Amino acid sequence: MTIPIHNKNEFVDKFLTPLSRINNSCSLHLKNDKLTALVATPDASVILNAIWKFGNSFSEENKLNIPDINKLIKVLDCIRTDSVALKINSNNISYNENGIKFKYHLLEDGILSTPAINIEKVKALKYDTEFNIAGQDLQSLIKSSTFASETDKLYIRTGEAGIYGELTDKNKSNVDSIELVLSPMFTGSEIDNPLALSFEIIRIVSCNRFGNVATRINTNLGVLLFELNNDNVELIYVASGLAET
User: Fold this and answer.
1) Domains, in order of start, for the chain
2) What's this model's pTM, rounded to 2 decimal places?
3) Which residues neighbour 39 within 8 Å (Cβ) at sequence distance 6 or greater?
4) How far is CA 111 from the centre of its chain?
5) Per-residue pLDDT tens over the stretch 15-50
6) Burial class (CB in 10 A: 0-12, 13-18, 19+), 222
7) Helix (H, G, I), strand (E, B), or coil: what is residue 105?
């Protein structure tokens, strides 16, 4: 079978690259009009469900076990056109157009593992607090981390101006800190006791230039969900808050 990629640069930058930042190998599942992948960091602290949306539906399902996402990205970058037709064979992905010919071999089934999480159940959880973080506010938070370099924790709370994010460590003394407004408004419950999370998830999410990041928090379970999407791509990051003593 052949799958058409009508926007190769976006496929690489906003689908494959985010996956590679979490785990450099994954299984891509082709079903109907979507290509999906579910990956986790080695310590399972961050899980990403990524979806690439085709303009048309396929009659057959397929599973592509990608051994090295970065290697696939490199060979796709060799193609000069932004519209690409990739041929899916039994054990490889091949391309032979516009003076370029390559064959990228796939792994057999059963070698790669998938996180033991039902993403639909996570999405269906009751979230107490929801808000959007604008891309520029996310970048401001990243810049502020160069000042609060002694910590890798972000504390989220609500206040008069909306949602606040503070870079500090409440379990240590004499730690430089900085707090910014992440969103001027929110829906749902207030967060009186700041929720701590690893700042690494913010670094990962901020690498994706999607504009707003829809954020949901289940305070009882300490689950955070970050959602980014456009016409072609949907990314859902799931992370857990840190237990504070």
Assistant:
1) 2-111 (3.10.150.10), 126-240 (3.10.150.10)
2) 0.94
3) 19, 22, 23, 26, 47, 48, 50, 115
4) 23
5) 999 999 999 999 999 999 999 999 999 999 999 999
6) middle
7) strand
